[in-house]
Specification:
One of its GO terms (molecular function) is structural constituent of cytoskeleton. 41% of the residues lie in helices and 15% in strands. The protein is α/β, with parallel strands linked by helices and 312 residues long. It has a seven-stranded mixed β-sheet.
């Protein structure tokens, strides 16, 4: 678990990952990354992010990303927190991670709780070395004072979550309901200009009351996925009848899709603009990071961007 913006999180995090990979060459490694605010926390955050991501792509099997901007909006708009602290942000991230990592009955666990959820998560979602970026969303999310007065149904939760996936909306508020899967040729566009978000693989995790009655067929639609992987291979679901964190019913989707294409493209673009004018490069070269190292990292991430852009 690491940040990609600051020097310690990104530098030490990448180094520790390298050490782990050396010691455990055949083990699955997942990195959980906190993506910096777009408006900026550190002047060189885009450099740090480019260098870190390019290195992790060589070392890690899956890279699970939380964007600070998205988590901040969840705190503000869904949880109605007026003065948002790091504790509030961390609580949302912990809730979402917990909804994945709590024990569950998985595809391969044959009626008992899985002993290897991280391994199964990687197997389900990161089936190709060019596609390692995972995003996630959880519903419902609301102030704890509202939970007692709310009722949830599986059809409504899953309808919202499916539309969040295909329209690349990170939270329940502001879903673009106009985006539809492409019928035949071309990509579907919503009224707001949002385009259809193609998935490589999705993992749906359901927890709570009547979980075995939940109908997940909407996520098995081949139109949601790339043409070279069958939807039977691309979609997995885990379930647990135990409610999670006071919610009678909750659903989490971990997705390997085009969802992170825009933030990655923005970050690489900003870093390249700084690099083109050689801004702050001396801060790196004096510690042995050459301009060639930067260029190698840019090349690596441009390949990742190209692969996700052409996912169809």
């Amino acid at each position: 678990m690491m940040s990609v913006a600051g020097g310690t999180g990104s530098g030490v995090g990448a180094y520790v990952t390298q050490c782990l990979r050396d010691i455990y060459p055949t083990s699955f490694i997942i990195n959980h990354l906190t993506w910096p605010y777009g408006t900026g926390e550190v002047i060189v955050q885009n450099y740090n992010s480019v260098l870190t991501l390019a290195h992790l792509y060589q070392l890690s099997d899956a890279i699970l990303v939380h964007e600070n901007d998205t988590v901040h909006r969840i705190c503000s708009q869904l949880l109605n927190i007026k003065h948002i602290s790091f504790s509030d942000v961390n609580r949302v991230i912990a809730h979402q991670l917990g909804s994945v990592l709590q024990p569950a009955l998985t595809t391969d666990s044959h009626g008992v709780y899985s002993r290897n959820p991280l391994g199964e998560l990687v197997s389900a979602l990161a089936c190709h070395p060019e596609y390692k970026l995972l995003s996630m969303c959880t519903i419902p999310q609301m102030p704890s004072s509202s939970i007692a007065y709310s009722t949830f149904s599986w059809p409504a939760l899953l309808k919202h979550l499916r539309q969040m996936l295909i329209s690349n909306t990170k939270m329940e508020e502001g879903i673009d309901w106009q985006v539809r899967p492409p019928g035949g040729s071309g990509r579907s566009m919503g009224l707001t200009g949002g385009s259809f978000n193609t998935s490589l693989a999705n993992l749906l995790i359901l927890r709570g009351k009547d979980v075995y009655s939940a109908e997940t067929g909407g996520f098995e639609d081949p139109a949601l996925y790339t043409s070279w992987l069958s939807s039977k291979e691309a979609f997995n679901s885990w379930k647990s009848p135990v409610p999670f964190n006071k919610y009678e019913k909750s659903a989490t989707l971990v997705s390997n899709s085009q969802a992170l294409l825009r933030p990655l493209d923005d970050m690489v673009g900003k870093a390249w603009n700084m690099f083109a004018s050689r801004a702050y490069i001396h801060q790196y070269t004096k510690y042995g990071i050459s301009e060639e190292d930067f260029l190698d990292s840019f090349t690596s991430l441009e390949q990742v961007l190209s692969s996700y852009r052409h996912l169809c």
